[in-house]
């Protein structure tokens, strides 16, 4: 297990019932830090409220969450040398980001693939086309039985992409296909989602503080 992280430990202090996930969450944190150390991409997929969670997570990673994440000095200098005052303004406002892609973000492709091929494979198709070995896939399924998430987990395995499942305690079939399973201690959908949010907030904060310290 990694050295203790303040944001992860704070999560357990605020929500003690999640302390049963301590080892698993540190494992996820380790995977995320390793992913960004090798400049990989996190792909995310889910349905309904979980789809919104995917976009939320991308928002916390691709820009500053609590930190402003200023650009490196060399990048700022390049902006100024190429674009002068406008470059300075741009460089001062841009933030360093971590690469994350929600597989809900391509509506044209999603609707075409649903119509022409198979709705169950909308995430698997994108993952197959975009992901490379060394990337990471996060599937969110409260019940653990989402067929489109399951197919994406299958594609990830064949593609050499490690996978994480964020779910509840219903022991759905998706858990059998994920490399790491974060199963919160709840079975009702909205209660599962209420646990998911503080978990991914803590992870995003921990990643940000470690990389942009």
Structure write-up:
- This protein is an alpha/beta fold and about 210 residues long.
- It has a single domain, classed as Glucose-6-phosphate isomerase like protein, domain 1 (Rossmann fold), CATH 3.40.50.10490.
- It has eight helices and five strands, in the order ααβααβααβαββα.
- It has helices at about 5-15, 20-35, 50-60, 75-95, 105-115, 120-130, 145-160, 190-210, and strands at about 40-45, 100, 135-140, 160-165, 180-185.
- It has a five-stranded parallel beta sheet with strand order 2-1-3-4-5, sandwiched between helices.
- The radius of gyration is 18 Å and the shape is globular.
- The mean pLDDT is about 95.
Key phrases:
about 210 residues; Rossmann fold; 5-stranded parallel β-sheet; 8 helices; globular
Name the CATH architecture. 3-Layer(aba) Sandwich
* Estimated radius of gyration: 18 Å
**Global shape:** globular
Distance between the termini: 21 Å
List the SSEs and their pairings.
Layout: H1 6-14, H2 22-37, E1 42-46, H3 49-62, H4 73-93, E2 100-102, H5 107-116, H6 122-130, E3 136-140, H7 147-159, E4 162-167, E5 180-183, H8 189-211
Parallel strand pairs: 1-2, 1-3, 3-4, 4-5
Short description:
The chain is of the alpha/beta class and 213 residues long. It has helices at 6-14, 22-37, 49-62, 73-93, 107-116, 122-130, 147-159, 189-211; strands spanning 42-46, 100-102, 136-140, 162-167, 180-183.
């Amino acid at each position: 297990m990694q050295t203790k992280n303040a944001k992860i430990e704070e999560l357990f202090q605020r929500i003690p019932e999640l302390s049963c996930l301590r080892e698993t969450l540190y494992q996820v944190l380790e995977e995320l830090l390793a992913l960004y150390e090798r400049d990989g991409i996190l792909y995310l997929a889910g349905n309904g409220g979980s789809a919104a969670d995917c976009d939320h997570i991308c928002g916390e990673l691709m820009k500053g969450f609590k930190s402003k994440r200023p650009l490196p000095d060399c990048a700022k200098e390049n902006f100024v040398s190429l674009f002068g005052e406008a470059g300075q303004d741009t460089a001062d406002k841009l933030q360093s980001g971590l690469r994350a892609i929600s597989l809900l973000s391509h509506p044209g492709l999603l609707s075409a693939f649903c119509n022409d091929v198979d709705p169950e494979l909308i995430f698997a198709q994108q993952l197959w086309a975009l992901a490379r070995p060394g990337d990471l896939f996060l599937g969110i399924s409260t019940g653990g039985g989402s067929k489109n998430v399951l197919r994406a987990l299958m594609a990830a395995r064949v593609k050499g992409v490690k996978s994480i499942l964020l779910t509840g305690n219903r022991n759905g079939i998706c858990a059998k296909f994920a490399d790491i399973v974060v199963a919160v201690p709840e079975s009702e959908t909205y209660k599962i989602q209420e646990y998911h949010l503080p978990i991914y907030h803590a992870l995003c904060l921990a990643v940000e503080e470690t990389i942009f310290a």
